[in-house]
Carbohydrate acetyl esterase/feruloyl esterase (Aquisphaera giovannonii), 802 residues
Amino acid sequence: MSVLRSRRHVLLPGLFALAIGANVATTVPAQAQPQGQRARTPNDTLKSVEVSPDHKVTFRIYAPKASEVSVNGDFKGGGKMTKDEQGVWSLTTGPLRPDFYTYGFNVDGVRTVDPKNAMIKQGIANVDSMLLVPGEESEFEATKDVPHGEVRQAWYRSATLGEPRRLHVYTPPGYDQGTEKYPVFYLLHGAGDDDSGWSTIGRAGFIMDNLIASGKARPMIVVMPNGSLPRPTNFPRTAPGTAPSPEARAAMEAIQNRFTDELLKDVAPFVEGHYRVLPGVENRALAGLSMGGGQTLRLITTNPDRFAYVGIWSAGLFGGNPDEWEKRNAAFLDQAKAFNGTVKLLSIRVGDGDFALAGTKNLDEVLSRHDVKHELTINDGGHTWINWRKYLSEFAPRLFR
Amino acid sequence: MSVLRSRRHVLLPGLFALAIGANVATTVPAQAQPQGQRARTPNDTLKSVEVSPDHKVTFRIYAPKASEVSVNGDFKGGGKMTKDEQGVWSLTTGPLRPDFYTYGFNVDGVRTVDPKNAMIKQGIANVDSMLLVPGEESEFEATKDVPHGEVRQAWYRSATLGEPRRLHVYTPPGYDQGTEKYPVFYLLHGAGDDDSGWSTIGRAGFIMDNLIASGKARPMIVVMPNGSLPRPTNFPRTAPGTAPSPEARAAMEAIQNRFTDELLKDVAPFVEGHYRVLPGVENRALAGLSMGGGQTLRLITTNPDRFAYVGIWSAGLFGGNPDEWEKRNAAFLDQAKAFNGTVKLLSIRVGDGDFALAGTKNLDEVLSRHDVKHELTINDGGHTWINWRKYLSEFAPRLFR
C-alpha cells in the first residue's frame, strides 16, 4: 500500500497545481509523481515549442545531466542543441515555412517526444511530437471557424484478418442532419502509421472542412483504414539501414495482397453498409502515400474497374524492377483502353527530394509505354507529410466532378 | 537542402525497415532519422513493455549514458531501474491486477514516454504511455469481438469561449442504421486531461460496447466535452507542490463557472441539435471525475433540475471548507425536496486511498444534514483511472431505467 499511502500525502498539491493551471512538466501521471515540497527547477516554467512571429521555432528540453541532446524532424535546421548553465538545452531554427511539422529529441541516445508538448502523432511503433507554424501557407490545414465534419473511430470485423479492426471515417458537415448520399474516398497512410495518421499529422478532416467550406471540394466521405497489417511471428526481420532480403520482400508482397482483400472484401462492404455512400465506380476514389501508394497501385492493377479517381503519392515502383513489374502486370497493362475509360484521374505525385522519385519515374515510363492515361507531377520536397497534405488538398477538389 | 539530400540517401532502407516490419526504435520520423549503415544496438530489437502470463510487467529502455533511470505509473512496483552491460535499463513488477495502466520513464531527470510503446494517453500538458494487463478483471474494458459503437470527434462553436471547440461523442452500435432517439450521458474528465481522455485511458467506448452487448446497459449517447478551459494569461501560477493562493482559487472558481455555461449553453444545445437525443431531464445523466466531479457538483447545485442521474467521483469538496460551501449553497440545499424528486440517482464515489476522501466525506455530511438523497460508496484505491473506469462500468448500467 506504500504507493497509495504516498499518493494520499503528496497528491493534493499535485492535483491543485494541475487544477489551477500550474505549468505541468511531467509526462508521468500527476497522481503517480510524488512532488511534496520539492525545489523548483527550470523545468517548471520551461516552454517548448515556441514559434516566433518571424516563424523561427525554438525547442527546449531540461536535461541537466545529459552530455548530448539533439532535435530532428521533417524540417531544416534541426541538429545538436546547446545547454545553458541551468541544464536547459535549446535550439532555434531559421524561419520555417508555415506548416505542420513532426519532431523528436535525442537525449544521450534516448529518443523522446517533447515532454512539454502534448501535440502527438502516433504510429504503430513510434511517437512524434507535432508543431504548427501558423501563417498564410498553413491556412488550408488549420483549425478554422468553419462548419466541421466529424472524424469517427469505427470498428468492423475483418474476415480477412479474423479480428476486429479500427478505421477512421470523415463525414462532411451536416451529414447527420440530412439523408443524402455521398461519394467515398479511400485514403491510405504509409508504413509505420495506422488509421489515425491522416487525422493527426495528416490533418485530413481540417483540410476537407476548409475545402468544402470554400466550395473547392464536393462534400464526401473519407475512409481511412489501417493499412499496417499484423505480421506473422516468423516475418523476416530487416535491420534498420540494411536492404530487405528476397524472403522479406516476398513476405511483404503477401501482406500487400492481403490488404487488397481487406479493403475490397471487408472495409468497403462495411463502409457501404454503415454510411450513406453513393454506388458506382464514378463515386469511388482511392489514394495512398508511400506504402499506401504501393497498396493503391496493387489495388488498381488487380481491380482496374473499382475506382474512378486514383492518387499514387511518393511510391511508384520503389525498390521494384520495372521490367519485372511490367511482366507481372501484363494483364493489367493490356487492358489500358478499358482502364482509361473507367478512370477519370490517375494522379502520380512525388517530390524531387523523395527517395521514391526514381521508382515513380519508372512507373510513369511503364504506364506511358502501354498508353495508360495518367498524370505525373514532380514538386519540391522529400518523403514527408508536408507534401502529402498538399497532395490531398489539391487532389480532393478534382474528385467526383 | 542538406536535410533533403541526406533524406534521399538514407531513407530507402529506413522506409523498407518500416515497411517490412523491422523493429523501429525511433520516436523521430523515419524520414528525418538518418540511419545509413549504422551499427546495430540492443535498441533495434528491444521490447517494452512485456507482460508475462503471471501478470508481471517488464519495462525496458535503452539509455547507455544515463546514470539513473526510473519508471513510475498508477501501479505498485515502479521505481529505480537497473542497467545491464549493454546499456538497457529494466524493471519487472510483481503480478499486477489485470487492468489498463499509465506510466512514464525518468531518464536522468528527463521524463519521457516509452519509446518502444505506441499506446499513448494525451493530456493538455502531459503525455503518458499506456499498457494493458489482460485477464478476467480487465475483460469489461477490453476491445472485444462485439458490436462496436463509434467514437466521434466533433467541433462546435463555443459562444462562451468564442472559439471552435472539440468534443468526443460515443454513439451506440447501430446508431447510423436506425432513427430512434437515445438518452444522453455527459461524462467529464479531470484536470490535466482533455476531451480525449475518456476515450484513451478511460476506455469509455469499449466499456459501453461491452455493457450494451451483454444487455447490462441501455444504448445511450455519451458526450465527452473538453473541461479544460483556456486560461487568461494573467492566471495566478501555483508551483507544483505548493498550495494555491486565494487569488488562484478565485480564478479557478471563475473558470468553473464558465464551464457551467459552456456545458449548458454551448455543448448541450449542439448535442441536442446534432444527435438523436431524447428530450427531458429523465433522459439526461452527468458524471465527472476529480475536477470534472467538481464541475458536476457546481452544475447540479446551480441547475438542480437538468440531470436525473448524477455521479461525483474522486471530488467532493476537496480543498474547500464545508461550512463555507454549505453557506454558499444554501439556496440549493433548501430545495432538497424538489431535487430529490428530480434526481433518481446521485452517486458519490471515492477510493480509500484518494486524497479526495476527506472532501468527499465532507460533501456527504453536508448533503445528509440537508436530506439531499444520495449514495456514498468508498472502495479501495487512489485517485486513478483504475477506479474511474470501474465507476463508469458500474454507473452506466443504472442509467435511464
Remarks:
- The CA atoms of residues 111 and 372 of chain A lie 45 Å apart.
- Chain A has nine helices and 18 strands.
